[in-house]
Amino acid sequence: MNVTLTPTHNGPYLVKGCITLLDAQGNQYEVSETIALCRCGHSNTKPFCDGTHETTSFAAVNRAAASI
Length: 68
Ligand code: FES
Hints:
The chain has no helices and three strands. It is mostly beta strands. The chain has a single domain (about 1-60), classed as 3-Layer(aba) Sandwich (Ribosomal Protein L9, domain 1). It has a three-stranded antiparallel beta sheet with strand order 1-2-3, with no helix packed on it. The radius of gyration is 13 Å and the shape is flat. The model has no long low-confidence stretch (mean pLDDT about 95). FE2/S2 (inorganic) cluster binds near residues 12, 38, 39, 50 and 52.
């Protein structure tokens, strides 16, 4: 199964698919097949998004380069 990672508009990375998520010490998080990873740096539940980005001025809208 493919895993997709989508940087959402002004929000988290949305990850869909079966992944293994480890902390810096190699301990495994229990995760479902759809998770949101914080990229604003303000979540109180890192590495997961807790919605706090909506109360900050975090702004990031990413676009892949158009292929020819
Ligand atoms: S991206 Fe949602 S709390 Fe950081």
